[in-house]
Write a structure and sequence with these properties.
Layout lengths: L14 H7 L2 H4 L3 H17 L5 H20 L11 H13 L12 H37 L4 E6 L2 E7 H26 L1 E2 L15 H7 L4 E2 L3 H6 L2 H27 L7 E2 L18 H25 L12 H25 L1 E2 L1 H9 L5 H10 L4 H17 L9 H5 L9 H5 L1 H6 L9 H26 L3
Parallel strand pairs: 3-4
Antiparallel strand pairs: 1-2, 5-6
């Protein structure tokens, strides 16, 4: 088959070169964007009298017919045509003859693929943002059910202070709020129209790039043709934002794996979101959490791969940039799947309130509250820290938790200790007393839940606005 770029060449390319050069196996997912961009380009060419209205209409009708075939699964993609752009153009020329050969007037595959990727990125980002909202709502739902469910809070994976499960879930909620904000930034980076930049230096034909931008709902047009065809910052921004989001999911996965273990026993996954062992009948494995944790490294790899690909490229377009797609597409799919399955998984998991409560009643995580008790009695905090540290050491030696040490024993550490310290040591009181803004007290949980719902509603408005510009 003759290449659409083959006029300068006297022999066919090697079959291995064809296979190595081709990207159709993965860039065919850009078919909607490619055809939509071509239709907008055709409208502009006809409006500017670069091609005739009659040819323009034939091209548009032919492109719509090809789109219908692709949607119906009857279009035959050909590897020898390399990519989605040449597959569409060749099919168009076969359908309508000479007018089809006019479609590529005043453009290059360099600015064409850039346009497709910008459009695809905008659509994909809105899909991720929608899934983030749904996941945030799931976190709020779980948190709302456990505003008074006590559990240990950890630092260094050692029990630190008692908190609530609600507070813990809201910590993740806040992480994903930031992920949404980053994705909104990715949208803005992708909302620039590159078509009309040509291969590197624009065109001598009287095109109107702003007409194309308006039809395709871009707010900005690249002001430099070299930058337009070589810019992949918006892809790096997405891969970076996706890596951070996956990192948050991975941190959550690590805790889910720990919490679902026999040693912790804080949660149990629904049978629909766990797997068994082919050898050990008793096993119930947290495979979803483990897979998400594992796939996080895969997403990181796509980011590092793209950074490495671009770091040594001279301006403007280089074939290396074809490597921008596989990692991006895989990252989009991985992130969307992870958010979707995690939402359903946390909504169906069982939280073992009794096991969590038992944990906070049988540790020394109320030690800071005992120090605060002494501070309220007038003792400097550093002195109070020392006194309570000695009390903890005494308790460990004598196999007693702080609430089990007698008043006579406490008096040996400080005369400021009185009978009311037992109330201060109760985990539920320790948590309820932590009413500083953003703290774990149920009163603060209520405030943060209400604020969370407001933030989600604001996100929905942002998303609705962006979707309207697709």
């Amino acid at each position: 088959m003759a290449k659409l770029w083959g006029g300068r060449f006297s022999k066919d390319t090697n079959a291995l070169v064809d296979a190595f050069n081709a990207s159709i196996d993965y860039d065919k997912r850009l078919y909607k964007e490619d055809i939509r961009g071509s239709i907008a380009h055709t409208h502009m060419l006809a409006h500017q009298h670069i091609i005739s209205e009659e040819d323009g209409q034939k091209i548009v009708d032919g492109l719509k017919e090809i789109l219908s075939e692709m949607e119906g699964g009857t279009f035959a993609f050909k590897t020898e045509l390399e990519d989605i752009h040449m597959n569409v153009e060749a099919a168009l020329t076969d359908k309508i003859g000479a007018p089809g050969a006019r479609l590529h007037t005043a453009r290059s595959r360099n600015d064409q693929v850039a346009l497709d990727m910008h459009m695809y990125m905008k659509k994909a980002v809105t899909e991720v943002m929608e899934l983030l909202i749904k996941f945030e709502e799931a976190l709020l739902t779980v948190a709302a059910k456990h505003q008074k469910t006590l559990m240990p809070g950890y630092t260094h994976l050692q029990r630190a202070q008692p908190i609530t499960f609600c507070h813990h879930m809201l910590a993740y909620f806040n992480m994903f709020l930031r992920d949404f904000r980053r994705m909104e930034g990715v949208w803005k980076g992708a909302d620039m129209m590159p078509l009309g930049a040509g291969a590197v230096a624009g065109t001598t034909l009287p095109i109107d790039r702003f007409q194309v931008a308006e039809e395709l709902h871009f707010d900005q047009v690249y002001g430099n043709s070299m930058d337009a065809v070589s810019d992949r910052d918006y892809i790096l921004e997405f891969l970076s934002a996706a890596s951070i989001c996956m990192m948050h999911l991975s941190r959550m996965s690590e805790e889910m794996c720990l919490w679902s273990s026999t040693e912790f026993g804080f949660i149990e996954f629904d049978d629909a979101f766990a797997t068994g062992s082919s050898m050990m009948p008793q096993k119930k494995n947290p495979d979803i959490s483990e897979l998400v944790r594992g796939k996080t490294g895969r997403v990181y790899g796509s980011l590092m791969g793209m950074l490495t690909t671009i770091k040594g490229l001279p301006l403007a377009y280089n074939k290396d940039l074809q490597e921008d797609k596989e990692g991006l597409f895989d990252t989009i799919d991985t992130l969307k799947f992870s958010l979707t399955v995690y939402r359903d998984m946390i909504l169906t998991m069982t939280v073992n309130k009794e096991r969590m409560a038992e944990a906070v009643h049988k540790d020394y995580s109320n030690a800071t509250d005992l120090a605060d008790y002494l501070v309220k009695k007038g003792m400097p905090f550093r002195n109070a820290h020392k006194v309570v540290g000695e009390a903890v050491a005494y308790g460990i030696r004598n196999h007693k938790f702080l609430a089990e040490i007698s008043m006579d024993e406490y008096k040996k550490f400080s005369p400021l200790f009185e009978a009311d310290l037992l109330e201060a040591l109760k985990p539920e009181n320790c948590v309820a007393a932590r009413t500083s803004y953003g703290g774990p007290a149920p009163s603060q949980n209520k405030i943060q839940l209400e604020k969370g719902h407001e933030q989600v509603e604001a996100q929905k408005k942002v998303l609705e606005n962006l979707v309207s510009k697709l």
